[in-house]
Structure formats: structure tokens, C-alpha cells
Design a protein that fits this description.
Number of strands: 12
Shape: globular
Order of helices and strands: HEHHEHEEEHHEEHHEHEHHEHEE
Helix content: 25-40%
Structural class: alpha+beta
Radius of gyration: 21 Å
Distance between the termini: 66 Å
Largest sheet: 6 strands, mixed
Number of helices: 12
Length: about 350
Amino acid sequence: MDYKNSGVDIEAGYKSVELMKKHVQETMRSEVLTNLGGFSGAFSIERFKNMNKPTLISGTDGVGTKLKLAFIMDKHDTVGIDCVAMCVNDIACAGAEPLFFLDYIACGKNYPEKIATIVSGVAQGCKLSNAALIGGETAEMPGFYPENEYDLAGFAVGIVDEEDIITGKDLSAGDILIGLASSGVHSNGFSLVRNVFPMTKDGLFKHYDELGTTLGEALIEPTKIYVKALHNIKEAGVKIKACSHITGGGFYENVPRMLPENKTAIINKNSYEVPQIFRLIAKEGDVEEKVMYNTYNMGIGMVLAVSGENVDKVFEAIKVAGEKGYVIGEIKDGDKGVTLC
């Protein structure tokens, strides 16, 4: 009896690392001091000494049950983008610049080519957010996960000068809410999705005219990464007063998180076109509108609050970043919360 006969293939682990190295290398920044394969990753913060009070911001998250689609569709090259996005979008909400990322993959059986494909997506997400992929872990856990399944999670660290942290404390009545368009469902609410649609190859590869694609392709579309857009807004000299990443809990849970106790957000649901994938989920699952807005991003992946005089600058900055935005509402005095009308 040996470790391989127990279900853990050490040689496959070595091969996975070799196959992923080229993807990891593409994410390197000049501040990275270590090579892939060590016990830890080192990142120099020498460049940030000019900040008055350099502050580290961290975030961790996973892809969730969206991975079930990847298993059925045998498509593993984009879920890594989702993993990075869920972490870096959160820290970007605080005004931070992502610096580095680490991933964690747990699987029932290590198939090196599949692991390398997953990591290629992680690397792509890191490139989109200018974060270095400085380390990670692939854990082969036979008997814990089915052979063809895995879990994927990650951890990101960013930096911001303390005086530039986005907190919402300076919000004023009349500030404008700008919504950045999502790419679809992103990485939340898939437990509901999986109860609305049959999670089979036939179901996921079914073409829907209203989507212009198959159901699976629409659902597995990776999460938008908004780091560049937020960076451009800051470089344009605009102060983002408050920011919310619309993840699990949709509008009703996430928008209030960016507000102080004496401010409320008023959002106009008709200020932008809700993507067809959400209309299809609501129709096929007979899901009430409030539940939809309390579960999904409904086409808005990030909400920003800025002064009215800065709206034009914001739209120019996000256009340069390749993103699309809408004026979706405003801030008013009142009890902390959000009203959708």
C-alpha cells in the first residue's frame, strides 16, 4: 500500500504545477520576490512608502455552486476569473489596488490538465485586475470530493492610503448612484438557478432565442472585474463616496452596506434594461420580482455614489475601461436602506 493507491497521486501534483507555471508567470509584477513552488509568496511594498498611511485591504471568496455547471459542461477555463473577481471587486469597493492573489483548489482526483485549465482562468482574472498570482494550493482529497469535482476559492490583498478608503461617511443627499453593468448572473444565486433549470447537458446546451446563446453559455459567463473602471475614476480625480459590489443578497442586502445610518438609496428599476437571463429565470421559476432583486445583481454588478458634478467624468472613465454604466438613482436623507421604485 502507498499514497497513490490510497488515491493521492503526488506525481500528478508535480505535473499540475509544471503545467500551470506559464499561466502564473503572465501575472507577475515587479514587486514579487519569490517563485512558484515555494512554501509562501513574498511581495515587496517598497513602492508604496510614499503613501501617508498605507493600509492593506483583504478579501476572500469562492465560486460557489456555479461550479456545478462547469462539471456538467466540462468547461473549466473561466471559473478562475469568477474566483478572482469575487475577491478583487470586494477590495476595490474600499478603494484599494489589488496587489496579489492566492488560490485554493480541492479535488477528488488531480487531473493535471484540468487543474492547469482552472489556473489559466485564475491567471486571466489576475491579469484583468493587475494582481500577481503569487501562490496557491491544490489539495487532492479522495473520498471527500467525487473524482470529477472540485472546489475553488481564493484570497486577495490590496493596498490603499488610509485617507482614500471608501467608507460612505461623506455621502450627501443628492449624490448620484451609478450602476456598472454586469455580464450576467456572475457567481451568486446558482442554488436557485439549479432549481429553476434542469442541470443536465441537454438542459444547459439548449439554445434560447431570447438569450442568443445556450443556457449554459449564458450562465457560465464569468463575473465582471471592475478594478480598471474604479482605477480610472480615481485617476480622473473623482472621489467615489460609496461603493457596493452587488453579490449574494442582490440590491436589498448589498446597497445598504455602503450607506451611513442617516442616508437611504433610491434606485429606479427602469433606468436600465434588465438582461434577458434574469427575465428567463423569473419566468421559468415563477420567481417574484422582490426575490430576484434580493438574490441577483439584475444587470448591475457595482453601484457607485458620486457628486452630481462628477457624473460626466465617471462615464468617460468607465468607457475608457470598456465598461458600461447607468445613472440608476440618488442618495436621500432617511433611515439606512434602499428603495427600488
